Task: inverse folding
């Protein structure tokens, strides 16, 4: 695989109520690409190369023959994002909690890495981590 072109990642997540999910993530400071956002899906911008597609469950179902997991009861994936500092980890997770998320377990400090997480309104797990040696 060539390194000449930077790869992008699009994480696709099923959501029950797209407008509620968009409001939740907007409260965390994320924006959406209007070109790829409509009544069935919203393209949340994490960075220049990382995007999360929030898809209404019925629309999400068109892309798989498997049943859709209920992330409030089962874990299929944990999406981990880096943060520029320990403080940035705390700010983002605390903002998520104020917007209605829940914190499934306490912060973890491994010395070289500080990590906290939240479960969003649809039950999806997000980890926010700062590793020593990263800028910030």
Result:
């Amino acid at each position: 695989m060539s390194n000449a072109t930077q790869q992008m990642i699009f994480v696709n997540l099923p959501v029950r109520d797209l407008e509620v999910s968009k409001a939740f993530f907007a409260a965390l400071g994320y924006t959406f690409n209007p070109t790829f956002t409509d009544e069935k899906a919203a393209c949340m911008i994490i960075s220049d190369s990382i995007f999360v597609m929030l898809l209404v469950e019925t629309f999400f179902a068109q892309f798989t023959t498997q049943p859709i997991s209920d992330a409030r009861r089962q874990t299929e994936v944990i999406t981990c994002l880096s943060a520029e500092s320990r403080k940035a980890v705390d700010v983002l997770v605390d903002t998520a909690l104020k917007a209605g998320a829940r914190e499934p377990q306490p912060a973890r400090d491994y010395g070289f890495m500080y990590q906290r997480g939240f479960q969003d309104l649809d039950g999806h797990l997000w980890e926010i981590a700062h590793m020593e040696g990263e800028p910030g």
In short: The chain is about 20% helix and 30% strand.
